[in-house]
Amino acid sequence: MKLAPVDYTILAVYFAFVLGIGWILRKKMSTSGDFLLSGRSVPVWITSLAFIAANLGAQELVGMSASGAKYGIMTAHFYWIGAIPAILFVGIFMMPFYYGSKARSVPEYLKMRYDEKTRTYNAFSFAVMTIFSSGISMYALGKLLQLVLGWDFNMSILVSAAIVLVYTFLGGLTSAIYNEVLQFLWIVAGFSPLAILAVAKAGGWQGIQTRLGAMTLAGGMSGRVMTHAWTYMGSPQSNPMGVELFGMVAGLGFVLSFGYWCTNFLVIQRAMAADSMNSARRTPLIGAFPKMFLPFIVIVPGIAAVALANMHVGYSIPVEANGAPNYNLVITTLMAKFYPAGMLGVGLTGLVASFMSGMAGNVTAFNTVWTYDIYQTYIRKNAPDRHYLHVGRATTIVGVLLSIGAAYVATRYDNIMDLLQLVFGFVNAPLFATFLLGMFWKRGTGHAAFSGLVTGTVTAALTWCLTLAEGKGGILGTVHTFPSAMAQSFWIALMAFTSCFLVTLVVSLATKPRPEKDLEGLVYGLTKIPQDRGSWYQRPAPLAVIIIAILLVLNIWFA
Amino acid sequence: MLDLRVPSGWFFTVLGLILLGMGIFAPETRATLSDANVNLYSGLAMLVFGLFMLFMAWRASRRAA
C-alpha cells in the first residue's frame, strides 16, 4: 500500500493538533495533583469519552476486527455481555467509594480499605503490567505499519512514542485525557465509513448472512452462526469460539469484565478526574453509550471482510507465509481497498491515534501509581508537593522509555508476549473479588484480602497448568481439556475469582475486624451515598435504565 | 481551562476541508472496491461536525461573557 502526499498531510495535521493541546495545557500544571490527577476538574463529557478511549488501543481495534472475521458477531459479547454491565456496575455502585474516599489511585483505595501490603501487591503488578501492555501494543503497531506501509519499525515506534511523551510531559493527565477525546472522535471518523462501505459492498447484513452461511455449513456448523450472537451457545462445538453459555456469561461477562472495568486504574483514573461525585459516577455511564455501538465499527468490518472474500470481487483475506489466514491485517487491507487517497490517510491516522490513546493511558496511570503508591510510600514520604510534581514529570520519561524497552523485548522473544498476558491474567482475575468484598462487606480484613489475592493468582496458575486447550497449558498433567483457549481463559478467571472470594471470606472471619470508624467513606453501609438531583440525564440511575434497555434490544436483535 | 470544543472543532474543520477539496478537485481519486466519492461525503460530514463543535464553543463562551 502506498500513501499519497495528502495522506501524509493529514497525519501531520493530527500530530500538530495533538502536540498543540499539550502545549496549551502546559501552563496549568503547578501541583502534582494537576499533573497526575487533572486537579479533579475535567467536564463529564470529556472524562466519559476518555474512559472509553483509554481502553480503545490499536490492539483492540486490530484484534476486534480479527475476531470478527474469525468468530463473527459473537465477538460483540466482549461489549454487550462483557464491558457494558461492568461499566454500569462501576458507575452506579463502586464510584461512590472510589471518588468519595479521596483516594488518588486504585491501589491507594486498597491501602485505605485494607492495608499496605495489599496496596503494594496491586501497585507493583499494575505498574509492571501497564509498561508491558504499552510496550506490546507499540510492538504490534510498529509491525503492522512495517508490513502494510513498509515504514521502518524503529522509526514508527520511536516517533509515536516521542509524540506521546511530549504531550503527556507537557500537560500531564489533562493533556492525555483531552487528546484521548480527540483520538476517539478521529477513530470513529476514520473507521465508520469503512464499516458502511464494506457492508454495503457485501450486500448489507442480509447479503453477509447468505454469503457466510455456505461457508460455515461447509465447516460443519449452522449457516447462521457468524451472524447470531446467542443462538449457538448451547455447546462449545456449535460455535466458532468454542465456548458454552455458562463460561461466557460467568467467565467473560462477570469475572473478566468486572475485573477489568471495575478495578483497572487505567480506566478508573479517567472517572476520578471528573469535577464532582455526580460526574465521576456518570463518566462510565455516558461512556457506555458510544461503547455499545463500537462493535458496528470495529467488529462488523471483519465479518464483512469474510463475506467479501467469498464473493470474488477482488478482496481476499490476507495470508501468512505458511498459507494460514492473517486476520490481524483484515482492517488495513480493507482500508486499502475501500479508501481513496485522503480518506486512507484519515483511516490509518485513526489507527495511529488509537495506539497513542492506549499508550498515553498506560503512561499516565503508571505515573500516578509510581509517584503516589510506590515512590511516596517507600522512597520519600514527606517531601513538599513540588517534589512529587517533578517526580511525576520524570516518571513520564521513564515510563515511555520502559515501554520502548518492553517493545524491543517483545520483538526478540515472540513467546514472552503470550507468557506475560497469561501471567497478567492470573494476577488480574481474582482482583474483583477483593474489591467486591472490600466495598460491600465491612468485615473484610487486610490479611484476608492479601491471602485471597495470592490464593487466587496461584489457583489461576494451577488451573492453567492442569488443563489443556489448543495445545497450551497442561504442563503438570491434564485433568480437563477445553474446546478452545478462550474457554480455558474464561474458566481460569472463574476459578481465580471463586478461590479468592472464599479465602478472603474465611480469613476475614478468622482475623480481627477493623473498627468501623476507620472504614467510613470506604464501605457500603458506612458511607453517605450521594442523593442525585437534576433532570434525568444528570442522574446515574435513569441513564443506567436507558443503557440496559438499548443493551437488551441489541442482544435480542443479534441473538 | 481550555474548552476542548475549540481545538476539536478546528481539527475537524481543517480535516473536512482537506477531504472536501480532494472530493471536489480530484473526484477521480477512487478506491478499487468503491464507486462512491468517499472523500466528498466524509469530508462534508467532518466539516459539518467541526463547524457544529465551533458553534457550540462560541455559544458557551458568549454565555459565559
Strand content of chain B: under 5%
Query: How far apart are the first and last residues' alpha carbons of chain A, in Å?
Result: 37 Å
Count of helical stretches of chain B: 2
Q: What is the string of SSEs of chain B from the N terminus onward?
A: HH
CATH class category name of the largest domain in chain A: Mainly Alpha
Major sheet attributes of chain A: 3 strands, mixed
Shape of chain A: globular
Please state the average pLDDT score of chain A: 91
Structurally, the number of domains of chain A stands at: 2
What is Rg of chain A? Answer: 23 Å
CATH architecture of the largest domain in chain A, please? Answer: Up-down Bundle
Cα-to-Cα separation, first versus last residue of chain B: 15 Å
Number of strands of chain A: 3
Q: Name the poorly predicted regions of chain B.
A: none
Written overview of the protein:
Chain A is mainly alpha-helical and 559 residues long. Chain A has 2 domains: 5-412, Sodium/glucose cotransporter, CATH 1.20.1730; 419-528, no CATH class. Chain A has 21 helices and 3 strands. Chain A has helices spanning 5-25, 32-37, 44-53, 58-71, 77-100, 106-113, 116-149, 153-201, 204-218, 245-263, 265-272, 277-298, 300-309, 330-338, 343-379, 385-412, 414-428, 431-440, 446-466, 485-510, 540-557, and strands at residues 467-469, 472-473, 480-481. A 3-stranded mixed beta sheet of chain A has the order 2-1-3. In chain A, helix 3 packs across helix 8 and helix 8 (153-201) packs across helix 15 (343-379). The longest helix of chain A is centred in the first third of the chain and has 49 residues, at 153-201. Chain B has 65 residues and is an all-alpha fold. Chain B has one domain. Chain B contains 2 helices and no strands. Chain B starts with a helix and ends with a helix. The model of chain B has no long low-confidence stretch (mean pLDDT 92). Classes of the chains: A mainly alpha (559), B mainly alpha (65).
